[in-house]
Amino acid sequence: MTTDLDIAAGVKVPATTLAREATELIRDTTSELIYHHSRRVYFFGSLRGRERDLSFDPELLYLGAMFHDVGLNEAFRASGHRFEVDSANEAKRFLQAHGVPEDSVRRVWTAIALHTTPGIPEFMEPEVALVTAGVEYDVLGIGYGDLSAEEREAVVALHPRPGFKNRILRAFTDGIRSKPETTFGNVKADVLEHFVPGFERGDFVRTILDSPWTE
């Protein structure tokens, strides 16, 4: 059953067993910061989808939003994978354990794995595009004016964001500082360059010139 805590700006959290169990899992295994951020990603992604007149599966979008940052958890800091991949793999395990069809699992995995890779998700399935759109709205403010102040306020009233900018940057830093090699060629290199003394970002040109090829 959907409650007042699951509705904002006309968007409802799916009232399914899968969504409820995912919510409980994320609340139990991540910080309050990540929980509220993940829920806002769902609401803002849904609103962006409504604004763009996209047809999407709310449950798949919700699952992608809820799992998208779980890879920042301490349990994954020695994995050697990008945190996005760790997050996507955790979602995949959860969905497969619940007998979700493989095409749906693939959509959620892809939505999570690509959510920090701008310029690609927007051309993929709506659930993939809208996880990224929700993240970009909440973290970067991309498309901020495309939603009304009333819509924004309704979402933030349900899931507040006190000190969010600096707190999410700390969460990113803590989640990836132990595996800096995973930031090569992606936006998280910017985070480590700002907050981790001595970090040196990978250089794509230098990598080509220093490759073992002789020509």
Automatic annotation (TrEMBL):
InterPro entries linked: HD/PDEase_dom, HD_domain
Ranges of residues in domain HD: 35-122
Gene3D superfamilies to which the protein is assigned, alphabetical: Hypothetical protein af1432
Record protein name field: HD domain-containing protein
Organism expressing this protein natively: Streptomyces javensis
